[in-house]
Amino acid sequence: MIPTLLSQATNDPALGAGLPVTPKTFWLPEGASTIAPEIDWIFNFINYINYFFFVLVIGIMFVFMWKYRQRGREVYARGPNHHTMLELGWTIIPTIIVVFIFFIGFKGFIIAKTVPDNAYQIDVTAAKWYWKFKYPNGAISDDLYVPAGRPVKLVMRSEDVLHSFYIRDFRVKQDVVPGRYTSLWFQADNPTEGEDFHHIFCTEFCGTGHSEMNRKVFVLPETEFDNWVVEQGRWLDKVSDEDLWWKAGPQLYRACASCHTLDGSVGTGPSWGNYDGNGNVWERTKAGSTHKIDGGKNLGDIIGPGKEYETPEGYLRESILNPGKHLVDPYGNVMPTFKGQLSDRGIQALIDMMKNLDKFNKDGTVKPDAIPNAGGAAGAAK
After folding, report:
1. What is the Cα–Cα distance from 366 to 380, expressed in whole angstroms?
2. Is the Cβ–Cβ distance between 159 and 336 less than 8 Å?
3. 120-233 adopts what CATH topology?
4. What separation in angstroms does the CA of 202 have from each of 53, 87, 129?
5. How far is CA 350 from the centre of its chain?
6. Would you give the DSSP letter of residue 286?
């Protein structure tokens, strides 16, 4: 049985034949992947069974309530204690139903777990509280972009706690477990148009920022997707050194925003803004700073000529790549490393943004009047 189902899963022409999406129902949104019809069919089949037996049980209950209601004096009536056909019926019929459900469900499970050989692989990193998607050419994005009409395999890992990756329109869901890799695959044949997108949710409560892990999936025609991946892989290299702080910094900061605020308000990690009287994150790294780290030490004691870090930039770089080495009081070691995710140029963009925090709004957008050559550059920043 299993080899046959595996063969069906990998060779079924329907998987690549542009199956129509399933319509929206009271219980489910419109299905947008090739596996959606299979999932929706078994879901609706089980629901109809539930409807049937709900009406049957409630109906019989009301019939018995009416037929055997007490009318006058109480009379003891001995009822039947055995009915062979009835007992066989409520044993055999449900058994046939659940075996059928198992067979159909198992067939769908095999299809969902058997990744086609030509699947396009995207690496997914989950952390408190964001998703990071890395493509084969090294491009990275916060939202997921996939080619239409081609199977896509997601290889997922967690930087910290248990997360769960769920795209409801594609009918796929998989736990993302720290210390191991998990995967899922799907194929979306219909490109998203205009402002349309599919939702990504984390469906495992992972802390105070759990609700911030909602992201988007964009399905692009294959040629358009190929162009997007190439451009995304080199977007940072196309930004001039002078413009890194306001063009690249805000985009990269989005991965930091779930833990680090810009206005001094309390977050999971220390705010980049002024919250302790020592200034913002750049001003706190000056020589002689009394900003507290590692249980009461002064940050200024480790920054400066002849000290652990010659310059503030060295300390900030270390904090991004090895965040557990020095902990700002009273915060714990909860920040994941960005080693391998941020290039030297990306780190420089974030440090340059820190140096110019007074030119940013609290949501991480640059103030229009702070942009160099504001006339034409403002449009490029949007």
Report:
1. 12
2. yes
3. Immunoglobulin-like (2.60.40)
4. 34, 45, 9
5. 23
6. S
Amino acid in the structure at residue 93 = I
Match 């049957």 to its residue by tokens: 56
Superfamily for domain range 240-381: Cytochrome c-like domain (1.10.760.10)
Whether residue 20 has a cis bond before it, omega within 30° of 0: no
Tokens of 295: 């249980």
Query: What is the chain's mean pLDDT, rounded?
Result: 87
pLDDT score, position 77: 65
Q: Which two tokens stand for residue 69?
A: 């209601």
- Decide whether 120-233 matches 240-381 in CATH topology: no
CATH code of the region 2-113: 1.10.287
CB contact burial 100-109 (16+ within 10 A = b; e otherwise): eeeeebebbe
Confidence class of residue 7 from pLDDT cuts 50, 70 and 90?
very low
pTM of the model: 0.71
Secondary structure class of 216 (helix, strand, coil):
strand
CB 219 within 8 A of CB 199: no
Evaluate whether 22 touches 40 at the Cβ level (below 8 Å): yes
Residue ranges per structural domain of the chain? 2-113, 120-233, 240-381
Across 224-250, average pLDDT? 90
